[in-house]
């Protein structure tokens, strides 16, 4: 049987969660199957582990739904997300860097 290419993460190697914090966060635009911009965010932990989230856009319009932050200019018919990427990179990133993973309840205070 061939060797598996899977590399165990620090979580599986038994590193204590209290030793892990957010090292960096950055946002960027990706494009869906129709060619429209969507938002993606990557998070790197001090353990070296990374997480990637790609944000879908749906038709839900409930009052608790997050509002889209589209550029509103002529690029991509106003659907560009450079403003949203800027918010992630310039406002959210500095507030999350260095936060301990187990202390997520305290993040809203920063």
Strand order, biggest sheet? 1-2-3
CATH class of the domain at 19-56 and 69-98: Alpha Beta
Q: Whole-Å distance between the termini?
A: 50 Å
| Overall strand count | 3
Counting helices, strands and paired strands, the structural category is alpha+beta
CATH superfamily of the domain at 19-56 and 69-98: Enolase-like, N-terminal domain
The percent range for strand residues is 15-25%
What integer value in Å does the Rg equal? Answer: 17 Å
Characterize the overall form. Answer: elongated
Residue runs with pLDDT of under 50 for 5 or more positions: none
Tell me the CATH architecture of the domain at 19-56 and 69-98. Answer: 2-Layer Sandwich
Biggest sheet, in brief?
3 strands, antiparallel
- Helix and strand element order: EEEH
Mean pLDDT score, rounded? 79
Give a structural overview:
- The chain is of the alpha+beta class and 110 residues long.
- The chain has a domain at 19-56 and 69-98: Enolase-like, domain 1 (2-Layer Sandwich).
- The protein is 14% helix and 23% strand.
- The chain has 1 helix and 3 strands; from the N terminus they run βββα.
- Strands 1-2-3 form a 3-stranded antiparallel β-sheet.
- The chain is elongated and about 45 Å long.
- The protein starts with 21 loop residues before the first strand and ends in a 14-residue tail after the last helix.
- The model has no long low-confidence stretch (mean pLDDT 79).
Characterize this entry briefly:
The protein is α+β, with helices and mostly antiparallel strands.
């Amino acid at each position: 049987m061939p060797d598996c290419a899977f590399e165990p993460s620090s979580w599986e190697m038994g590193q204590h969660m209290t030793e892990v914090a957010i090292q960096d966060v950055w946002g960027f635009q990706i494009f869906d199957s129709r060619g429209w911009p969507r938002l993606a965010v990557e998070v790197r932990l001090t353990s070296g582990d990374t997480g990637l989230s790609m944000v879908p856009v749906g038709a839900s319009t409930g009052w608790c739904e997050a509002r889209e932050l589209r550029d509103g200019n002529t690029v991509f018919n106003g659907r560009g997300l450079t403003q949203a990427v800027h918010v992630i990179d310039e406002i959210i990133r500095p507030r999350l860097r260095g936060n301990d993973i187990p202390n997520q309840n305290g993040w809203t205070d920063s």
